[in-house]
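Dock cytidine-5'-monophosphate; give full complex structure.
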Amino acid sequence: MTPLSKIRNPIFCALDTSDLGQATSWAAKLADAVGGVKLGLEFFNARGAKGITDVTRACELPLFLDLKFHDIPNTVAGAVKAVAPLKPAVMTIHAVGGRAMMEAAAKAAREAAEEYLVDRPLLMGVTVLTSMSDEDLSETGVAGTTLDQVRRLAELSKMAGLDGVICSPHEAATLRQDLGPNFKLITPGVRPVWAAANDQKRIMTPAEALAAGADYVVIGRPITAAPDQAAAAKRIVMELAA
Ligand code: C5P
């Protein structure tokens, strides 16, 4: 599997399916077009670790394992260690789980990398899901705007030793300013101008997201729902270079 340091381009394609054949077919077609592939809860819960290995074998690309862990520190540390043999390049935990949970996850990621002789994954905090509005947040007991909460959780993620956060492209410029050049930012919610928005609401183009400070972008349906997945991905890459 390619290490993150040798990633071809900053695009992770979200392979959102529970179907093993579909995921491996997309992965094989995208092997020389995208930077990496993202597999999440839908696929992992249906196909497990074996399914993940099948997909990464089909493309040999960096794996973004998006399982968004959130539990007590000991359990999250155990979960981080449990997936280390899958050699994820990037993985996610919920920042709202708190400082002790994030510190335990970071320690577990370091220890597992030594134990399995693999590169340590980038450990990314999920701040506020972009599907949540200010009102949704207030219903959970959080006062203030989502941007306030995103900034607070991103700062906490950094203090706890995480490598970066997942955020909306609209938050990227603020977080880049708050947290400096080395803190990684990954943004979903991006759409090339020629693609349908689907259910994403506050979107930016991939080029705009990168210009705002994102290190990597996650793109799903504009690639996976295209008639020719590799061609769609290559078109996005060409637009980034323009
Ligand atoms: O198809 P689309 O490009 O909208 O896929 C985006 C991917 O990013 C999906 O896997 C989705 O779960 C994920 N995501 C998101 N918004 C977040 C966090 C993750 O769209 N806030």
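Observed: Residues 41-59 form the longest helix (19 residues).
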